[in-house]
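quick q for whoever's on today - can somebody do inverse folding on this one?? i tried earlier but teh output was garbage lol. tokens:
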């Protein structure tokens, strides 16, 4: 595995294991010029309950995506979060806002399990794993 990919994957894995803030801290130690650094930051910001920053970073990552399919996926992520932000601003029930009915806290103390909307985090992780595996010419583990 190339060291660049390994360092970026480690930061995302830290974010999955120890919480998104720990992942963002690990990502901050890496060079922002790394390929897909911005997409990883967007994912971790979304996990940390900061959809505005995540949407901005997804859009930025889409502009520098190396392939059309990756650009489309990142653009859809940004659009999904922007639509969510618009509906929250319009007074809709927002699961990421604990101050509203039906809301759950999305940020937690270090070491505490995070509660977040059912958005298929396992799907996101599988997508990341599938992407990096295909880039390295491997399938599975």
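ok took a stab at it. sequence:
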């Amino acid at each position: 595995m190339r060291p660049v990919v390994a360092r970026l994957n480690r930061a995302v894995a830290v974010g999955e294991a120890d919480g998104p803030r720990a992942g963002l801290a690990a990502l901050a130690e890496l060079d922002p010029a790394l390929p897909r650094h911005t997409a990883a930051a967007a994912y971790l910001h979304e996990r940390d309950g900061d959809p505005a920053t995540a949407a901005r970073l997804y859009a930025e990552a889409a502009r520098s995506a190396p392939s059309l399919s990756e650009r489309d996926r990142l653009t859809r992520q940004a659009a999904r979060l922007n639509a969510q932000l618009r509906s929250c601003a319009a007074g809709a029930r927002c699961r990421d806002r604990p101050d509203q009915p039906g809301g759950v806290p999305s940020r937690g103390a270090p070491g505490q399990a995070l509660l977040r909307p059912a958005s298929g985090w396992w799907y996101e992780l599988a997508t990341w794993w599938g992407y990096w595996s295909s880039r390295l010419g491997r399938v599975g583990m």
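fwiw The longest helix spans residues 68-89. also The mean pLDDT is 76. so keep that in mind when u check it
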